[in-house]
Amino acid sequence: MSDRTGSGYLAEVSGLRAGYDGGAVLEGVSFRVEPGVRIGVLGPNGGGKSTLFRVLLGELAPLGGSVDVRGRCGFVPQTERSRLDYPVSALDVALMGTLSRIPWWRRPGRFERQRALEALETVGLGKLAGRQFGELSGGQRQRVLIARALVQDARLLLLDEPFNGLDQPSSRLLGSLLDRLAAEGRSVMVATHDAGQVRGWDLVLCLNGRQVAFGEPESTLSRRVLEATYGGEVMVLPGNGSGRDSAILAPYHHDEVAEEHRREHGR
Ligand SMILES: Nc1ncnc2c1ncn2[C@@H]1O[C@H](COP(=O)(O)OP(=O)(O)OP(=O)(O)O)[C@@H](O)[C@H]1O
Ligand SMILES: [Mg+2]
Fold first, then answer.
1. Which of 29, 42, 66, 218 has the most other CB atoms within 10 Å of its CB?
2. Residues 201 and 241 in one domain
3. For the residues of 72-136, what is the DSSP string, one character each?
């Protein structure tokens, strides 16, 4: 079989049911991840995005269906502010990515440090390798965590809302880093609330306790799908010149984004 017919996929999920002691919180999830794609995982709070990632990482056993992940999966968690006080450098954090590859009795040596430094260079943070992780900005910390995943040689990267709290320049940097990783043949799955951003990527997976849709953003993100994903009315802003779809917003973004839209467009 060729890659197109499936032999080269990085992950395949079929009929997945996942949840906790209280029962399933996610059902009917089926999709495949080929190499070199950027997949937006869209859904409301509690929609099941992080739960899906935990299943892909093997932390949470499926309640039903099948999950086949090939190769290493790297994870960039939802920002954990409480854990930022540890006195570790950016390099230390990137080095953690080597720990699974060396025997337990060995400490990371020169080879591992070199790999970690290279990964920090790749994410544009070579110069800040010695900086305390807790002193870095949110966007820089996200990139350090991506460096850690690269050191693990992850082919599939799962990023849980990495754009939250980033300003526009940091978002752009992170976006172009994800583009580059995909161009190298890695795949990224990015949990996000931002339907507009997902439109620039290859695929979108919409979750709201179940899989609402999976496919190319252009043909998938209809108003109907967005309403089913967010469980309510979405809002359509008057045309802003950037295309029909980019003006559809999920409910809880109404206030902040409508305000921004008014500022920019004067209506
Ligand atoms: N450890 C847990 N034990 C029990 N229920 C949980 C646990 N973690 C999450 N849940 C529940 O599972 C559902 C899905 O949560 P999940 O964290 O996957 O959503 P999410 O899409 O990542 O949301 P957010 O956008 O807020 O991060 C929610 O109803 C949540 O309360
Ligand atoms: Mg989450």
1. 42
2. no
3. -EEEEPSP-GGGTTS--BHHHHHHGGGGGGS-TTPPP-HHHHHHHHHHHHHTT-GGGTTSBGGGS
Which three-class secondary structure state does DSSP give residue 19?
A: strand
Is the CB of residue 46 below 6 angstroms from any atom belonging to ligand 1?
Answer: yes
Backbone angles phi, psi at 247, to 5 degrees: -95, 0
Integer Rg of the chain from CA: 19
Q: What is the predicted pLDDT for the residue at 243?
A: 42
User: Does residue 79's CB lie within 6 angstroms of at least one atom of ligand 1?
Assistant: no
- For the stretch 106-160, pLDDT in tens is 677 888 899 999 999 999 999 999 999 988 888 888 899 999 999 988 999 999 9
CATH number at residue 156: 3.40.50.300
Q: Rounded to two decimals, what is the model's pTM? A: 0.85
Ligand 1 atom at minimal distance to the Cα of residue 19: 12
Q: Residue 137's closest CA among 159, 162, 101, 106?
A: 162
Spacing, Cα 50 to ligand 1 middle (Å)? 7
Domains: count for the chain: 2
Ligand nearest to the CA of 51: 1
Residues 201 and 249 in one domain: no
Are 254 and 200 contained in the same domain? no
